[in-house]
Amino acid sequence: MAAGFTVVDSGCCQELGEIITCLPLVEPCDDRDEYGRLPCMHPTQAANLVLAQRAFNGTPDHVYPVNLQQLVARL
């Protein structure tokens, strides 16, 4: 599965008819670290952490030509 997430094809928020969204004051599912995204393609906190780590110290197959750590070292 992508980056260790077990659910990547759906979000973990409550369904309201045909609309799947995170409603105000409603907790998302308990196992939200297993989800790669929330509805409408918003990444979860766990997915944002993976993206941030890859941007900071990722390899050229994820960040090109340099990652943020390499960029700062050049300053």
Automatic annotation (TrEMBL):
Organism: Panicum miliaceum
Lineage start: Eukaryota, Viridiplantae, Streptophyta, Embryophyta, Tracheophyta
Family: Belongs to the 'GDSL' lipolytic enzyme family.
InterPro entries assigned to the protein according to its UniProt record, in alphabetical order: GDSL_esterase/lipase (IPR051238)
Protein name per the record: GDSL esterase/lipase
